[in-house]
Amino acid sequence: MYNKILIANRGEIALRIIRACKELEIKTVAVYSKADELSLHVRFADEAICIGPYDSKKSYLSIPAVISAAELTNCDAIHPGYGFLSENAEFSSICKEHNIAFIGPDPITINSMGNKAEAKITMKNAGVPIIPGVDGILKTIDEAREYANTIGYPVLLKASSGGGGKGMRLVEKESDIEHAFLTAQSEAETSFNNGDLYIEKFIDKPRHIEIQILADQFGNVSALGERECSIQRRHQKIIEESPSSAVSFELRDKLCTSAVKAAKAVNYIGAGTLEFLLDSNGDFYFMEMNTRIQVEHPVTEMVIGADLIKLQILCHAGLPLPNWILKPKLRGHSIECRINAEDPDKNFMPSPGKITSLHMPGGNGVRVDTHVYSGYSIPPYYDSMIAKFIVHAPTRKEAINRMLMALDECVLEGIKTIIPYHKKILNDKNFISGNFDTGFLNKFEYKEER
233 an active-site residue? Predict the structure, then answer.
């Protein structure tokens, strides 16, 4: 078992990892930028060390700074959380070179699954259904045009190293493909320092379904059911739930079987997520693999009764998965709402600033993962998510009602949040009936009641 883990992250996920380490009796080291000096993860870790200014490129994304902090504090492992360096193959490799365990995949696995074009080929060879498209990277606009005509419009141009919708363009007709190619390529180069694109068939009105997996070093892989992640704004998830109302017992078994195949195909170790698109016919297609813990992992924890961060750490420390989790049983229903500091009345403009008053919800089946407190100043430099509300109840309807209660109970003054937006969604008849897809919020009208 590890003696001391450095947490190469900030915010709620850093606190989440600290809690898991305390239960495992592992010492923790928090790293922080100057903007996060008063953040709770700095206070609750056993040690804390400043690694740079507010600019994440010079702090949380600085590999030399993070490695130096780990060596100065004699850490034998680093947990990257999600975002920042969590899927950086170079970082994983450098950790290994410095005899520091990286609580994530090895560089080969990160590269093979992080490159979406390469990942599709790997999954196809493993027998996992993939979206119809073309293997490999597009070299020219003419090549993209030729493949689009072969596949048939509409098509998606996607950044090979992409995420969060960046470097992605929907092309509905041939005359649009040149402009779409150039803008997607430019955006990909800016966002990921990699302008490579690939092309695939556009699946109309899909559901976004993902499977959480855990894998130990003894060949055991467990698929922990599905998460429904179709409620997205600008390709960013804001509400997740488990199980999905669109997934039957038979479909869940097929999805989980494919996820296990995928993990074994790349000799995966630790926590990961296989993301699929589910069409209206019940057919599903591999989209990508996230080689890290995800923001929405708590909904899976709630329905299976496990601590995924603890199990992730144990897998990397060389311990086998417990027998019960190899055949997990889902219980009840869980929903998560991401609480972002944004103003929905002003086109979701970020709303950094000081929280002047704060009361978080509680009660049976209500969980809040957050790093904010009354008097805390939200910095303008990082992701706008400041909390996650997670509820668990026997049925989906009860979970929706419990989440509405939690949202109503929250008092958060001094900044704007998307809590009113969440309330509108959860009261929508189509959301309540489960009649939605990834385009749901594109048609959703929000007007704050005054």
Answer: no
